[in-house]
Amino acid sequence: MRCDQCDATITGEPTRTATRTLCHGCGETFVGLTAGYAATGSVGGAVSTARWYRVMRKIRRGGRS
After folding, report:
1. How far is CA 63 from CA 35, 38, 48, 56, 57, in A?
2. Could you point out which of 8, 24, 28, 58 has its C-alpha 20 to 30 Å from the C-alpha of 2?
3. Are the beta carbons of 39 and 33 closer than 8 angstroms?
4. Contact at 8 Å (CB) between 10 and 3?
5. 30-40 pLDDT, tens digit each
6. Neighbouring C-beta atoms of residue 15, cutoff 10 Å
7. Higher local confidence (pLDDT), 61 or 16
8. Using an 8 Å Cβ cutoff, are 49 and 40 in contact?
């Protein structure tokens, strides 16, 4: 199975949206964008929240930003 956003091979459980199947990284970005837009109501807020969310998830997994 391949990611509809970046065309990478999906290993593990994909993130499924209403119209797409996403890999882990694209799924995290999608969740961050959705949360950011819902919280701020602006595209700028959505983009900054998506970046913050991906960095926090990476740190939690033991990586660095």
Report:
1. 23, 27, 20, 9, 9
2. 58
3. no
4. yes
5. 988 999 999 99
6. 19
7. 16
8. yes
* Rounded CA separation 7/43 (Å): 24
Give 5-14 pLDDT, tens digit per residue: 999 999 989 9
Does residue 65 have a pLDDT over 60? Answer: no
3-state helix, strand, coil in the chain (%, to 5): 55, 10, 35
* Count of beta carbons in the 10 Å neighbourhood of residue 64: 6
Residue 14, SS3 per DSSP: coil
Helices 24-40, 43-60: crossing angle, 10 deg rounding: 130
Burial (CB count <10 Å: 0-12, 13-18, 19+), residue 41 = exposed
Pair of tokens at residue 20:
């797409």
